[in-house]
Every structure is written in structure tokens, then in C-alpha cells.
Amino acid sequence: MMNELRTPGVGRTRAVRRHAQRGVTLFSLMFWAIIVGFTALITMRVLPTLNEYFTIQKAVNRIANENNGTVGAIRQAFEKQKEVEYSIQTIGGKDLNVTKENDKVVISFAYDKEVELVKPVYLLIKYEGRSK
Length: 132
What we know:
The chain has two helices and five strands. It is of the alpha+beta class. It has one domain. Helix 1 packs across helix 2.
């Protein structure tokens, strides 16, 4: 868009081009910083619980494939595995449900995990799994 500007005291005019400003406003920068920060907070708080779940799942699968003993022996094997795997803290051997399906030992588990996001706000995650 061309506008004519007149300088005071001079009879000449010159053409000036006006460009619309482009870029990130402070408001949009703050908005995206808050979104990225909150997503990072949730990720940092949830990843350890996911790691624990996958560790429990791996331990249960290993015990179910190796152990065809009694329920007590299976629970004791899980407790030994829990001592080795430092990330298992939420459940113990007593929390396992041990059954047999088609002459195969099936170990299942379920538990809830509360993750504190910001002091009065918690995220509740319900985990459940079974041996393969």
C-alpha cells in the first residue's frame, strides 16, 4: 500500500511502503511456553509410573513362563524379583492374582497410581495387566 508523505516546508512528496509486521507476539509466546511446560510436567511425572508398569509386566511374564509351582512360590518369586528391580514399589506378591488356564499359569495384577501434578491436582492412572 502506497501512501504519500509530505514533509513540512517542502513541496515534494515521496512514496513509502508499509509492511504488516510479522512475528510472534508476547502473548502467543507465553501461551505456547505454558502449553509446552505443562506437557513436560505431565510427561516427567507419568514416565516413572509407566516404567514401573512395564517392569512389573516383564517380571510377571518371566515368572509365569518359568514357574509352574504353587501360588505361594509364584508370589515369593515376585518378591525376589521386586528386590532386584528397584522400580517396583507399588505392588507386592500378595497383590498378584494367580490362576491356571489350559494348564498354563496366568498371573494378573491391577493397581491405581496417583501422580501429583500441582499441589491440589492429582492424576489418577489405573494400571492392569496379565502374563502372556
